[in-house]
Amino acid sequence: TAKVYYDKDINENVLQGKKVAIMGYGSQGHSQAQNLRDSGFSVTVGVRPGKSWEKAERDGFPVKTVREAAAEADVVMMLLPDERQPEVYYKEVEEGLEPGNALAFSHGFNIHFTQIVPPKDVDVFMVAPKGPGHFCRREYLNGGGVPAFYAVQQNASGQAEELALAWAKGLGAARAGVLKTTFKEETETDLFGEQAVLMGGLTHLIEAGFETLVEAGYQPENAYFETCHEMKMLTDLIYENGLTGMRYSCSDTSKFGDFTVGRYVIDDGVKTRMKKVLENIQSGKFARDWVLENKVGRPMFNSLQQKENNSELERVGRELRRLMPFVKDGKQDSEDITAN
Ligand code: NDP
Ligand code: MG
Ligand code: MG
């Protein structure tokens, strides 16, 4: 069984007095910068001029270009989009890394797939929160936290592991549990989780259910509530008390359907394909496809995103949520979401 670290197991002094730069002020950037600051660390944000720059300034951070922030920092956390990190790293970060500095990530992709190869004389660690940035910030403010995985790829200073743990504690992650892993394990399991279950599996399950009802002539609004809106309530119950706790709140009629029909919908063929998905991640095929897609200007990504965002499910959902303002009040910046 894995060792799980909590607040009481971690001494954060090693990070105190260090100059910390967070590169990027998006989903993870704003959350990690604010959580660390509220935990007593001083943080500089490194971004390019534009929306994120202005936002970080409004939130009261010292803001610099990535190049300036990297040159001054002892610890650099890379929270730019994964696919942009290699270019920015080689142009603006690498020259600022001095022996004994630390380079950190929140996902293993670029190190594991060797898109970034740091000099040997710096620490390389990862603290990967296992939740979306806006949720990590919300939980921190509520006095809770989102679990995180940490890993050390290079330990030049001899303190990389302590630094990673201190970072995780500063994020509030050690309130929930911090687990040691490797860059390889985090990369492969993170990609698998988001592709097969948390995102790809879930979004397509919802869409298939919604379309089945609509194509059979049922009202789209009805279908939206049945296959999408209620999902949050059930997953909240799973989050709190497991599958059993969710089922406890539901009728025996629904449980009979769950037990007998669920395995007909999600049959052995699903698992066979999940194994293939995992193989494509492990072999590096998925990573090659994604790197190539970016090299050619993202034609497939852009057209699929356009199609997904404008599906009937999404159109019906936007309209219904507009009439339930309490559902999203203050929870996520809607200007960013509708921008796509
Ligand atoms: P976002 O897309 O939300 O944010 C990216 C940030 O990088 C923005 O502030 C953007 O600023 C800035 N940026 C983009 N290009 C440049 C550039 N060339 N120079 C300077 N700044 C730039 O990223 P995420 O937070 O989703 O992802 C960051 C990392 O965290 C990734 O490694 C990801 O895998 C990992 N991660 C993300 C999670 C999440 O919750 N989203 C969960 C766990 C890990 P601008 O406004 O100028 O575009
Ligand atoms: Mg993830
Ligand atoms: Mg991921």
From TrEMBL:
Positions of the catalytic residues: H107
Cofactor(s) required for function per UniProt: Mg(2+)
Record domain KARI C-terminal knotted: where: 182-327
Catalytic reaction list: (2R)-2,3-dihydroxy-3-methylbutanoate + NADP(+) = (2S)-2-acetolactate + NADPH + H(+); (2R,3R)-2,3-dihydroxy-3-methylpentanoate + NADP(+) = (S)-2-ethyl-2-hydroxy-3-oxobutanoate + NADPH + H(+)
E.C. no: 1.1.1.86
Pathway(s): Amino-acid biosynthesis; L-isoleucine biosynthesis; L-isoleucine from 2-oxobutanoate: step 2/4; Amino-acid biosynthesis; L-valine biosynthesis; L-valine from pyruvate: step 2/4
Domain of life, per lineage: Bacteria
Any Pfam family matching the protein: KARI_C
Chain ranges of the KARI N-terminal Rossmann domain: 2-181
Residues engaged in binding Mg(2+) 1: D190, E194
Binding site for NADP(+): Y25, G26, S27, Q28, R48, S52, G133
Binding site for substrate: S251
Gene Ontology annotations for the cellular component aspect, listed alphabetically: cytosol
Single GO biological process annotation from the record: L-valine biosynthetic process
An example Gene Ontology molecular-function term: NADP binding
InterPro entries to which the protein is assigned, alphabetical: 6-PGluconate_DH-like_C_sf (IPR008927), KARI (IPR013023), KARI_C (IPR000506), KARI_N (IPR013116), KARI_prok (IPR014359), NAD(P)-bd_dom_sf (IPR036291)
Cofactor binding summary note: Binds 2 magnesium ions per subunit.
Binding residues annotated for Mg(2+) 2, in chain numbering: D190, E226, E230
Record's function text: Involved in the biosynthesis of branched-chain amino acids (BCAA). Catalyzes an alkyl-migration followed by a ketol-acid reduction of (S)-2-acetolactate (S2AL) to yield (R)-2,3-dihydroxy-isovalerate. In the isomerase reaction, S2AL is rearranged via a Mg-dependent methyl migration to produce 3-hydroxy-3-methyl-2-ketobutyrate (HMKB). In the reductase reaction, this 2-ketoacid undergoes a metal-dependent reduction by NADPH to yield (R)-2,3-dihydroxy-isovalerate.
Family the entry assigns: Belongs to the ketol-acid reductoisomerase family.
NCBIfam families: ilvC, PRK05479.1, PRK13403.1
Descriptive protein name: Ketol-acid reductoisomerase (NADP(+))
Organism: Sporolactobacillus inulinus CASD
Species lineage: Bacteria, Bacillati, Bacillota, Bacilli, Bacillales
